Amino acid sequence: MRTFFPLLPGDLCADRPKLRGPITIEVPEGLKDEAIDELHEAALDEAAFLSLALLMDDGGPSRRVVAVSDVDSPAGWSECAAIYVDDVQVAQLVKRARNAGTQQELDELAQLIAQSTMDWYDVSELTDLRSLFDC
């Protein structure tokens, strides 16, 4: 089992990850590694989209954040396997999406954002991530 949690950048400042809208996948036995990777990628994409939706109403930094855990309710960051965060270029797209003047502009930007790859961080790098967001 692997669980993906959509977050806001400010959530990284907390003692433990926020448990809103988790996307949980159960991997059937005997599934090939490629298929498992595809399941993980689809779950990450969905959690990243939910993070983008959270950002639309938030006044904080314009970066999607997703925490990944092998437990469905991590008690702390140490129970997370990884944290995904947008890079600066994608953050600019997110910022533009937050300020989109039309639905068409928002849809086009959301599509570009969805096609982007988030940067992977080991949970041991949480202190460095926190410094990015002034925690």
Bin the strand percentage. 15-25%
Largest sheet: 5 strands, antiparallel
Secondary-structure class = alpha+beta
Shape: globular
Mean pLDDT: 93
Estimate percent helicity: 25-40%
Number of domains: 1
Terminus-to-terminus distance = 30 Å
* Total of DSSP H or I helical runs spanning 4+ residues: 4
- In order across it, which strands form the biggest sheet? 2-1-3-4-5
- What radius of gyration results from the CA coordinates? 15 Å
Number of strands: 5
Structure description:
- The protein contains four helices and five strands.
- It is an alpha+beta fold and 135 residues long.
- The protein has one domain.
- It has a five-stranded antiparallel beta sheet with strand order 2-1-3-4-5, with helices on one face.
- α2 packs antiparallel against α3.
- The model has no long low-confidence stretch (mean pLDDT 93).
